[in-house]
Amino acid sequence: MRPFDLVEPATLEEAFHLLEGDDPAVRPIGGGTALMLMMKEQVFRPVRLVSLRHLAPQFGAISIDADHRMIRFGATTSFSELEHSAVVARHLPVVVRTMRTLANVRVRNVATLGGNLAHADPHLDLPPVWIALGAQIVIENPAGPRIVPAEDIFEGYYETNLRHDDIIREIRVPLNASQRASYVKITTRSAHDWPALGIAVRLEMKDGLAHHPRIVLSAATNKPTRLVRTEALAHGQPITPASLRELGEAAVSEADIASDSRGSADYKKHLLRVHLGRALHALALEE
Amino acid sequence: MSTERTVRFSLNGRAVKAHVASHESLVQVLRDRFDLFGSRESCGQGLCGCCTVIVDGKPVSGCLYLASFLDGTSVQTIEGLAPADDRLDPVQEAFIEAGAFQCGFCTPGFILMTKHLLAENRAPSDDDIRHYLTGNLCRCSAYPEIVAAVKLAATKQRGG
């Protein structure tokens, strides 16, 4: 690694000022666990890093709206704060379950939710979960804040459409007491390896039929991707062996899956067929 | 430009300061400035746990943590774990009694992680232990003895 200018603004205005210009070597840093790896490999050679950690008092809280319709996660919240939050355990158990096999305890203690989104590695576990849950991302910018659906910030492999002077402020997740959700991380080497594919699913069950499903595929694609045609096909369907077979085939034909070191495209397609069906079946059986 | 700075923090209970460059990691500073060699950079990617250090009560990977972020923190290393010169922490005792190492390179990291596992969970199951320690690798493969040591340490800490 090489020296760089490290600054720690206490206000958003100061942070914007420090990010001014269009030098891609000037970037915000959250916990830094992912950036450190890129800097060590010299894939990323920063001129200046703008640390967001002193913004934590405003940016680091988890709160639930009084009417219990939305949870807000500040962007500098660490993964372990999420993991140990009683509010999250109660209202979004899928998020707490996802933490168990996400990196390890030490990384979870340091890595932040905002940094995780901005990193845009398609193998990350939380982005597909946020997308399945219908999360909205609040982004601050000198021109004013904007709110976008989580899936809309991802462009491709390690690529977002966040602008140079954007700062992720908050992740908002709508709550719905009747929703069921799961994330399946499929690893093909060791249990805690990067996934060969990740599948996040949320749905409601009404009279034995799946309603408003969201199905998101990650790791096997170059960005976390909603399988919207499969979602449309699943809406209003019973969860039976026949419908699961049909949905598995629909997902495989919809997803753009490539081969990599964790499995051939054919193998991953087979994993998708099998594990999407199992995930939907398990959700349908949930009480 | 602030490519260097002086950080003041508590190190194993002692107030210290260090002049650090922006790109230096916590594990580098512990070894180069303070002669504390118990945390080691091994994989350099946060996967193996050999560089485990406790910052503000939480284990972190010293190889992925910028030393510049140390200002105002409280840092504990394996060197600061034993309560006295002639007495070990119960987790250290348990690792010795269970023979939970061969070369010992990964042991400080395993012991510090175990300390924190037991702070969160007084009686962890095998599954809890294996999940919690998933980010610690032992290339001598002493895993069965390590799991036994964690259980022994849990018993000791419960006063058993």
Question: What would the keywords be for this entry?
Answer:
heterodimer; A: 287 residues; alpha+beta; Uridine Diphospho-n-acetylenolpyruvylglucosamine Reductase, domain 3; Enolase-like, domain 1; four-stranded antiparallel beta sheet; 12 helices; globular; B: 160 residues; Ubiquitin-like (UB roll); DNA polymerase, domain 1; 2 domains; five-stranded mixed beta sheet; 5 strands
Outline the structure in words:
The complex is a heterodimer of chains A (about 290) and B (about 160). Chain A has about 290 residues and is an alpha+beta fold. Chain A has helices at about 10-20, 35-40, 55-60, 80-85, 85-90, 95-100, 105-110, 115-120, 125-130, 230-235, 240-255, 265-285; strands at about 5, 25-30, 50, 60-65, 70-75, 135-140, 145-150, 155, 160, 165-175, 180-185, 195-205, 210-220, 225. In chain A, helix 10 (about 230-235) packs antiparallel against helix 11 and helix 11 (about 240-255) crosses helix 12. The longest helix of chain A is centred in the last third of the chain and has 21 residues, at about 265-285. Chain B is an alpha+beta fold and about 160 residues long. Chain B has two domains: about 5-80, Ubiquitin-like (UB roll) (Roll); about 90-155, DNA polymerase, domain 1 (Orthogonal Bundle). Chain B is about 35% helix and about 15% strand. Chain B contains five helices and five strands. Chain B has a five-stranded mixed β-sheet with strand order 2-1-5-3-4, sandwiched between helices. In chain B, helix 2 crosses helix 5 (about 145-155). Chain B starts with a strand and ends with a helix. Classes of the chains: A alpha+beta (about 290), B alpha+beta (about 160). The interface between A and B is medium-sized, with 28 and 32 residues.
What is the element layout, followed by pairings?
The complex is a heterodimer of chains A (287) and B (160).
Chain A: E1 5-7, H1 12-19, E2 26-29, H2 33-40, E3 48-51, H3 56-59, E4 62-64, E5 70-74, H4 79-83, H5 86-91, H6 93-99, H7 105-110, H8 113-119, H9 126-132, E6 136-140, E7 146-149, E8 154-156, E9 159-160, E10 167-174, E11 179-186, E12 197-206, E13 209-218, E14 225-226, H10 228-234, H11 241-254, H12 265-285
Chain B: E1 4-11, E2 14-21, H1 26-34, E3 52-55, E4 58-61, E5 74-76, H2 90-97, H3 107-120, H4 126-132, H5 143-157
Parallel strand pairs in B: 1-5
Antiparallel strand pairs in B: 1-2, 3-4, 3-5
Helix pairs in contact in B: 2-5
